[in-house]
Specification:
Helix content is 49%, strand content 11%. With 700 residues, it is of the alpha/beta class. The structure holds acetoacetyl-coenzyme A.
Length: 700
């Protein structure tokens, strides 16, 4: 008997326990254990089998870390078939999150009973694959095409009562799951009815016309061509109706194997594991501080967004603004965000009221005396922020966390103006806060481990992904963005049009190109920053002044109807603008640049490789803990196409040698492209970024 699966028989019922923390993933040891358990059930003394799991959940899926490695016997599809074929009744007892392969094991059992709090579903599509252990064949036989397709294409878990209404599970209990499952098994054996095998069930085929209509409707939906899984899911669900069960399983297997080998799935699996790995920080052993009352200083777009997120997580929030007028405007922004959430069905009217009751506002920082945490989100101005921190230091209670939402400023400098640098941390949110999942937790030199851990715990509570960053100008995200933008700006100066750069990056998978984003965000804020930093700029570094020229012409982006593009009155659709072409041409002439054309591939490569090069520098400086953290930042904060896994993953796939050689070639004309020393070292030692991820994982 393996450690991961054990069993014992009581009064003819064999109780099989899966115990493979943290989520009882169906790795090789679990599969072998279940295989052996079903073999042992052949014992004439066994009348029925109950499969349940220890710990927090019934298996949450196949073990994602095994994908892409040589398959180990027994395969999950074979195991599911063996369970289904067992001539003793097999009951699955579900709690926690019975997902993916875990739910497929459950569907292969003859009866399913679940705790009411349990969730079931098929999230495989989020990993670029499909349920590959019979799920696409068994689920539609139980619940029909429409619901099976929704479950598999949306990938969202559903609760046990809903699954029962759909016919996917047979019973729901409030408590004593295992006892109830054993009782049920005894009762069913007593009744002596034939076993109900999902593979033989035809309930879901009762309305073949409706079934086919659901398939057609699903096919008619326009989908991202870079993501092949939904289309293959539809094919498999259709095959369930058309083919005998065994052939359907074979059809599903072929589709699964194609998908698991696809670039999209490799990227999506990397993204999933990277987001979890980002939580493995040196401070993970520290106990986060309790946060119930929070303060937010600054009620602008960011401050209001942060306050709304904190309210949504159940905290009491006090918003602080400089005067009554600005406070009213800040509270109004929170109200607007609530209004939008209600309209979109994300917030109920009751919840909105409850959140509003937990919100207070003041123009006096002293009102934050009871707060456990404050997040400063005032204008990005060093003196202003330092002043706020000095005042916060005076009014905050001992042990409170003082966080800054700065995008660029030195968190050590802000910590130094207080008498409690250990309590100071950066919590860098991304705009719009309600849509962007990323929070950079910036650990300054003296930040206490439990304060960093508090940042991570808070991000999790807000449903966001936290990435640890060290102190530098722009941390991880804005440094990457600056490199990306520099590459794009050089392309403009040397001959490309904004629309060409944007189209190439959309083709790469971004929803918007860098100049569409710039026009949407507004060009004035970064212009102000550039003017502030003008004196400290390194004159040896290339400076592309196109954005300055646009701003000088009053082109601040969508808000002024013109930026890198022009916009018709009230429209957000970018149109190419000859006036921009003139500005570009004037800049090129002023610098003696003879414009040339750039193809899509070169545009993408320059933008991507600039990010990779900057990422390598960020790693060498220890600003990011590991390459996959940089990937997470770009995926969760900047819209980098998730299916590509992030820039560092993309570089691994292309090969570091190719990236370095291209950079080296471009560097002959422009030092910006000089390859980071780390890339040369990696080539010499035959290493990939993913090797560093694995090493870091071992350390933590
Ligand atoms: N395989 C391997 N490890 C997994 C895993 C899986 N399927 N699911 C979760 N884990 C690991 C995480 O990496 C994390 O590890 P660390 O503690 O080392 O960081 C740990 O379990 C806890 O995960 P979370 O931090 O995500 O915990 P949570 O409580 O927030 O969420 C969960 C739990 C809902 C199960 C979530 O982890 C999840 O959604 N997991 C993925 C489920 C999934 O996609 N299943 C389908 C797998 S593919 C499949 O099954 C294909 C098939 O048909 C054969």
């Amino acid at each position: 008997m393996s450690q991961a699966v054990s069993w014992q028989t009581q009064d003819g019922v064999m109780i099989v326990t899966i115990d493979n923390p943290p989520v009882n993933a169906l790795g090789a040891e679990v599969r072998q254990g279940l295989w052996d358990a079903i073999g042992a059930a052949e014992d004439p003394g066994v009348k029925a089998v109950v499969i349940h799991a220890a710990g927090r959940t019934f298996p949450a899926g196949a073990d994602i870390r095994e994908f892409g490695k040589p398959p180990a016997d027994p395969w999950l599809p074979d195991l599911c078939n063996r369970i289904e074929a067992c001539d003793k009744l097999v009951v699955a007892a579900l709690h926690g999150t019975a997902l993916g392969g875990g739910f497929e094991v459950a569907l292969a059992c003859h009866t399913r009973i679940a705790l009411a709090s349990a969730k079931v579903g098929f999230p495989e599509v989020n990993l670029g694959i499909l349920p590959g252990a019979g799920g696409t064949q068994r689920a539609p036989r139980l619940c029909g095409a429409q619901e099976a397709l929704t479950l598999m294409i949306e990938g969202k878990p559903i609760d046990a009562p809903t699954a029962m209404a759909m016919g996917l599970i047979d019973g729901v209990v409030e408590e004593d799951l295992l006892e109830q499952a054993i009782l049920l098994a005894g009762m069913l054996v007593e009744e002596g009815k034939p076993l109900r095998r999902s593979g033989e069930c035809r309930d879901g085929f009762r309305d073949p016309i409706g079934y086919e209509a659901a398939i057609r409707a699903a096919r008619a939906v326009k989908r991202d061509p870079n993501l092949p899984a939904p289309g293959r899911i539809i094919d498999c669900v259709e095959a369930a109706l058309l083919l005998p069960f065994e052939n359907g399983l074979g059809y599903e297997r072929a589709a699964f194997e194609d998908l698991v080998a696809s670039e999209a799935s490799a990227g999506l699996r990397h993204a999933f594991l990277s987001e979890r790995r980002a939580g493995h920080i040196p401070e993970a052993h520290a106990t986060p501080r309790e946060i119930a009352q929070a303060g937010v200083v600054g009620g602008g777009l960011m401050g209001a967004g942060i306050a709304t997120a904190l309210l949504g997580a159940g905290l009491h929030v006090t918003l602080v603004e400089a005067d009554r007028e600005r406070l009213a405007a800040g509270l109004g922004r929170i109200d607007d965000l609530h209004e939008r959430a209600v309209k979109r069905g994300r917030l109920s009217a009751d919840a909105r009221e409850a959140e509003w009751d937990r919100l207070g506002g003041t123009t006096d920082l002293a009102g934050l005396g009871a707060a456990d945490l404050v997040i400063e989100a005032v204008t990005e101005d060093e003196a202003l922020k330092a002043g706020v921190f000095r005042d916060l230091d005076r009014v905050m209670k001992p042990g409170a966390v003082l966080a800054t939402n700065t995008s660029y400023l030195d968190v050590d400098d802000l910590a130094r103006v207080t008498d409690r640098p250990a309590d100071v941390v950066g919590l860098h949110f991304f705009s719009p806060v309600q849509a962007m999942r990323l929070v950079e937790v910036v650990a300054a030199a003296k930040t206490a481990p439990e304060v960093v851990a508090t940042g991570f715990a808070l991000a999790k509570r807000l449903g966001k992904v936290a990435v640890r960053a060290g102190v530098c100008d722009g941390f991880i995200g804005n440094r990457m963005l600056t490199a990306y933008r520099m590459a794009a700006d050089i392309l403009l100066e040397e001959g490309a049009a904004p629309a060409e750069v944007d189209a190439a990056m959309r083709d790469f998978g971004f929803a918007m190109g860098p100049y569409q984003v710039a026009d949407m965000a507004g060009l004035d804020i970064s212009w102000a920053r550039r003017k502030r930093l003008a004196d400290s700029r390194d004159p040896a570094q290339r400076y592309v002044a196109i954005a300055d020229r646009l701003c000088e012409a009053g082109r601040f982006g969508q808000k002024t109807g013109a930026g890198y593009y022009r916009y018709a009155e009230g429209s957000r659709t970018p149109e190419e603008d000859p006036a921009v072409a003139d500005i570009l041409q004037a800049e090129r002439s002023a610098r003696g640049i003879e414009p040339r054309r750039f193809g899509k591939v070169e545009i993408r490569q320059r933008c991507l490789f600039a990010m990779v090069n900057e990422g390598a520098k960020i790693l060498a400086e220890g600003i990011a803990l590991r390459p996959s953290d940089i990937d997470v930042v770009m995926l969760a904060g900047y819209g980098f196409p998730r299916w590509r896994g992030g820039p560092m993953k993309a570089a691994d796939r292309l090969g570091i040698l190719q990236v370095r050689n291209a950079l080296r070639g471009w560097a002959a004309d422009e030092p910006f492209w000089t390859p980071a020393p780390m890339l040369n070292d990696m080539i010499k030692n035959g290493r990939h970024f993913d090797d560093m991820n694995a090493e870091e994982a071992q350390k933590s």
